[in-house]
Amino acid sequence: MRLWLFKSEPDVFSWDDLVAKGAAGEEWDGVRSYQARNFMREMRLGDRGFFYHSNIGKEIVGIVEVIAEAHPDSTAADPKWECVDVRAVEKLPQGVSLATIKADPQFAAMMLVTHSRLSVQPVTQDEWDAVLALSRAA
């Protein structure tokens, strides 16, 4: 299983919106970055990811699961754009803010810090474990 981070603006599509979709989940559509699309092409059923509220809140708030591998994005006219489907798994006990992550040296190489604009990105096991520890310690 690989680990990921998915960014969404909460005023457009929030963690609560994904929770409301239930087990059926939702397409992670609208991504128009080749690098993010290519990451989604690498995803497999059961992979997990953090749900990150960007712009407003700027924090990791939950865990999602990939429930459909890469397929054509229903919002794109061009078939080169693909997406995966995800469902909400668990809300974190406490959100972990971008400021907290940037202030902690163990996250210096995390893509959330080094590639801040990328909407879909991989997360290492060490980063995953450290974020979860911060969420549970707060």
From TrEMBL:
Domain of life where this protein originates: Bacteria
Protein name per the record: Predicted RNA-binding protein, contains PUA-like domain
InterPro entries: 5hmC_binding, EVE_domain, PUA-like_sf, THYN1-like_EVE
Membrane-crossing residue ranges in chain numbering: none
Domain EVE, residue spans: 3-133
PANTHER family: THYMOCYTE NUCLEAR PROTEIN 1
Family annotation (Gene3D superfamilies): ph1033 like domains
Sections of the chain in a coiled coil: none
Pfam family, one: EVE
